[in-house]
Description:
The strands form 2 sheets. The chain has a 6-stranded mixed β-sheet, with helices on both faces. A 6-stranded parallel β-sheet has the order 9-8-7-10-11-12, sandwiched between helices. The chain is an alpha/beta fold. The mean pLDDT is about 95. The two termini are about 30 Å apart. The protein is globular and about 55 Å long. It has helices spanning about 20-30, 45-50, 70-75, 80-85, 105-115, 135-145, 155-165, 180, 225-235, 245-260, 265-280; strands at about 5-10, 35-40, 60-65, 80, 90-95, 100, 125-130, 150-155, 170-175, 185-190, 215-220, 240. Strand 11 (about 215-220), helix 9 and strand 12 (about 240) form a beta-alpha-beta unit.
Amino acid sequence: MTRMGPTACVIGWPVGHSRSPLIHRYWLEKYGLDGDYVATQVPPDRIDAFLAGFAASGFIGANVTIPHKEAAFRAAAKASPVATALQVANTLWLADGAIHADNTDCHGFLANLDERAPGWDSGGAAIVFGAGGAARAVIHALISRRFDPVIVLNRTLARAEALASHFGPPIVAAPLTDAAQFVPDANLFVNTTSAGMADAPPLTIDWHGAPGDAIATDIVYTPLQTAFLREAADHGLKTVDGLGMLLHQAAPGFERWFGVRPVVDEALRQRILADITGRGA
Ligand code: ATR
């Protein structure tokens, strides 16, 4: 493969949907830097070997997406406190020939809300819908901003309970069907489920009694305005879409690899939005 200067990649399976090359190439161009960023598809049965050979691959670092984030964490010689807490990594770089790992999903989640809903973290109760891998990063982020309780509502109660025992007391686990009893007391609502993505049927939430100054956010950004966000807005809540989380989680990796802390600006958001609209989900 012919590469243009220092090159990073996104590793996933599949990876064709990833907007990461667009994001990083935008910043490389904006800051006039020599380098490139490409998508690298690695099947599950090849990921351990791929990461074992990563230091010799010529790449300077990588983002890692589904389903390889656990393998990326395992392959790292050194991991940041957040990656260690979550046991998953989405950002890799090389130092002294060894893989170092971070998890920037928490940062992306927090930076998006800090930017689009200043004051969102004044505390109180938060509800997290879903209990998968994405929920873990969100819960870690909410605990870091002292939300208490963090109520995890999931279709499969056992997965919410597993998160409650992993994270401890601020977490309350309950079945999704109990949502109505928690909604009136929460200040923040986060959808981490894959329901409502592309063609999947949306979550149906009884928003009755939700506080008028509460905020709803979705980590899904395809579509940008999910049914979850539309219904929350219909009930008078402020909403924050998930695109900013994608953009902000990319910044720490770019800085590691290319030496410039990039700014998430409106032109970048518009470029990614155009791609989402143009390609559909
Ligand atoms: P990720 O790692 O991206 O979070 P995941 O581990 O597959 O993905 O988790 C997906 C989440 O969406 C889960 O909480 C899942 O609920 P279950 O644990 O009961 O499977 C939730 N989810 C997916 N489709 C859903 C639907 N139609 N209604 C409610 N929850 C749904």
